[in-house]
Amino acid sequence: MAQLNVKLSDEQMEEFRRYARHRRTPASWLMKDYIEYLLAGGRPVIPPSVDAPTGADLASLAQAGRAFDWLAEEPELYSPTDGEPM
């Protein structure tokens, strides 16, 4: 049987062990299951980017993509006087 050695920082290893305890499974089983998942064609799990787009970035993309242009043709169902004041 082959063995794989992976170097992690102390913080990464503690976080991995914490996650394994949360899942109530040995850390080695988590790693083995993930490797089997990847070898079976699963897509790698990628951590969120530190440079994730802001809300303004996403709004600009939606506007530039013209996906919501149809809303301009929708009738106005409500007016500023509808509802209760906040």
Unreliable parts: none
Globular, elongated, flat, extended or rod-shaped: what is the shape?
elongated
DSSP, total strands:
0
Q: Tell me the fraction of residues in β-strands, as a range.
A: under 5%
Structural class by SSE content = mainly alpha
Helix coverage percent = 40-55%
**Number of helices, where a helix is a run of at least 4 consecutive DSSP H or I residues:** 3
- Roughly how many Å is the radius of gyration? 24 Å
State the separation between the terminal residues, measured CA to CA.
67 Å
Strand/helix succession:
HHH
Mean pLDDT: 87
Largest beta-sheet characterization: none
Q: How would you describe what is shown here?
A:
The chain contains three helices and no strands. Helices cover 44% and strands 0% of the residues. It is mostly helical and 86 residues long. The model has no long low-confidence stretch (mean pLDDT 87). The protein has a domain at 8-45.
